[in-house]
Amino acid sequence: MSYKVEPLPDSFAGLGEGPHWDVATQSLYMVDLPNGKIMRYDFNENKMYRCQIENEQFASFIIPVEGHPDKFAVGTERRIVIVKWDGLSATCKVEKTILTVEQSDKHDNNRFNDAKCDPRGRLFGGTMHKTAYSSRTGNFYRLLKTDAHELLKTDVGISNGLAWNEKAKKFYYIDSEDFEVKEYDYDVNTGEIKNPKVLLDLHNMRGDGINLIPDGMTIDSEGSLYVATFNGSAVFKIDPNNGKILMEIKLPCEQITSAAFGGPNLDILYVTTAAANEKPLPNGTTYKITGLGVKGLPMTKLKLED
C-alpha cells in the first residue's frame, strides 16, 4: 500500500504528545510536553496555534471537555487541571484543579504522562518518574469525578498509550518500560479492566538486539492498532486478533510519540514526534499520513462530573 507522509506547518515541539482530533472544530489538539504548551492545528486554515499555560512547566495531555468548547483537561505535574483557551491566544490560565494524586514523598518526582477518555467519556491516565524511567514509581488511574479517582495499576514505569475497542470489549495499554502492548477485557458500562495479556512484544523486534519502545497508540474503525515507537522511526499497524504486524509506517525521524486519526473523513493519521536529547530536525515535527485506506473513530471528550 502506498501512503504519503507530510509535515504539518510550524509544528515543531520539543516533545509533541497527546494528539486529540476534535470533530466539532476540525482541529488537532496536542501538547509540547516539557514546555507547558498546548497546541491546535486548524485543518481548514492549515495553521498551528500555540498557547503557553501560565505558571505551568509541563503539559502532558490535552482533552476537550464535553459541552465547553473553550475548556480542556490538561495533565500538569501530578494534577489534572481545567484550562480555558479560545484556541487562538498565546497564553491561557488554569481555571481549576479537578484531581491531584501521589502526594507522598515517594512520588515527588512523578508527573502525569498520557491520558485519554474511553467511549463513555471517563478519563484514564497514568504517571511516571520525570527522569529515572526505570524506577517504576508510576501508577495508572481512572477519574471517577472531580477529586475522586480509582487506582487501576501500580508498579508502572512509563504510563503511555491507550485505546479501546467497544465492540470487542477490549482495552489496550502500554507501559513503555515493559516494551509490550497489553490487552485487557473491558466493561464499557463500568469502565472496569481485567485479565491482562501481552498482545505485542517489542523486545528485539527487528532482530538487532534493540528493544523498541512503544509510546502512544490509536485504533481504526476496523479494530487495528497503531503503535508509535519512540526509538523506531515508525508506527506499527497491529492485528488485534493475534498481535501480528500488518504494516510498518516509516517516518523521517526517530522519536515517534503518538498518533491519532483526524481530518474531515477521519482518514488522516496524525503523528507526533519528539526532539529529546537534542535530536536534530525533523525530530519534533508533527506529520500527517494519507493513503492508508482506513478510517479512525471519533475521539471522546471528557464528560466531567462534579
Which descriptors would you attach to this protein?
mainly beta; globular; 52% strand; Neuraminidase
CATH architecture: 6 Propeller
Structural class: mainly beta
- CA(first)-CA(last) distance: 47 Å
Order of helices and strands: EEEEEEEEEEEEEEEEEEEEEEEE
Q: Give the overall silhouette.
A: globular
Structure in a nutshell:
This protein has 306 residues and is an all-beta fold. The protein is built from no helices and 24 strands. It starts with a strand and ends in a 16-residue tail after the last strand.
Describe the model.
0% of the residues lie in helices and 52% in strands. By secondary structure, the protein is mainly beta. The chain has one domain: Neuraminidase. Strands 2-3-4-5-9-8-7-6 form an eight-stranded mixed sheet, with no helix packed on it. A four-stranded antiparallel sheet has the order 1-24-23-22, with no helix packed on it. It is globular, with a radius of gyration of 17 Å. 48% of the residues are buried. The mean pLDDT is 96.
